[in-house]
Amino acid sequence: MLIQIICISILMLLLQFFFYKQNFHKLVLYILPVLSLCYMVYSIFKIVRAQALVNTSFPLAVKVIGLLLPIMISLIGMIVCIVIKYRHVERSELKKVVLRQFLGFIVVMFVILSVTIYSAQEYVIFFPNDSEQDRETLQQSHTYEQVTISQKYKGWLKDNKDSDTIIVYFGGNAQNTASTFLQFESVGIFDVMKNYSFFSIDYPSYGESEGSLSQNSLFQMADNVMDYVENHFPDKKIDLIGYSIGTGIASYVSAHHALHKFVLVAPYNNGKDLFNTYFSIFYGPLTNLIQYPLESDQYVKQVTCESLVVMSKADSIVPMRLSKKLIKAFEKEPSTVVYEKDTHADLITEIKPWQDIINFLDK
């Protein structure tokens, strides 16, 4: 990706001087720099979406310089072209022209960045997906039951009639329930939780669930899920588990519904600090651009049941320091399990973390 950015930056600079020679001054001074800015923004969001920034070993300075290179080169080219164009005017007037053009571009850049950051968050945070094949496999099984809530949310239930407890699970940003159920079955996770019922519903636009994504729609879905469980399983205790992005939804639920036990796997304290681990720009007025504040550190203050936080020092997606910040927000200190080498995905797909979770739930 960095090589691609450098190549396009050089190409953009060559185009600037070519068009200047052809007397397309406005194209050089305004349009190409704005196109460079748009490409920079696109590159940033594409890289963050692929989570390459947190998985590579490049120092932060290298990443930032690489991502800013197109716009830096375009600005330099723009200033050089302005200087050449106005080289016959007095030096004081030349400074005014350069400053005026530069400030105008900075304003345009800020507007484009703000609009893009606000509107592209869903693209960066969520990975709506579906697996028709996995869904058909579950439908052919007599072990799992497909559930529809409010005629628009769909998911799956693994019901243990002999169990007095049901686990409600809010998953990560790339999980759909059909694939998750089959994965848990194939690696033996359902064997670990054989004494429990297990229930999970797809987020809006995931799987067969309908609706659009927003913080309010996610919280509304979560309320509908909990109302369904409370009404259909009145004799069962409810244990709630949230993983990754789902910990923000689970934390909201913990403040609004009665729970037996509460587990957070790879949690963050709030959306602002999570986003700032990728790009530290959400401070002051810019925090208003965050569409998904997901203020778990406010919700968990109301948790009264026994809680567990599972985290890993090797988690490069949600740094453990954010999990530690969340732990401090609990009024009733939660139990913790810390792994040394497990990745973000390992925490939910490996047997050992689930054994520790079930041991906690069994107590």
UniProtKB/TrEMBL annotation:
Residues 195-267 form the AB hydrolase-1 domain. The chain crosses the membrane at residues 27-45, 65-86, 98-120. It comes from the Bacteria. One of its GO terms (molecular function) is hydrolase activity. InterPro entries: AB_hydrolase_1, AB_hydrolase_fold. Keywords: Hydrolase, Membrane, Transmembrane, Transmembrane helix. This is Alpha/beta fold hydrolase. It comes from Amedibacillus hominis.
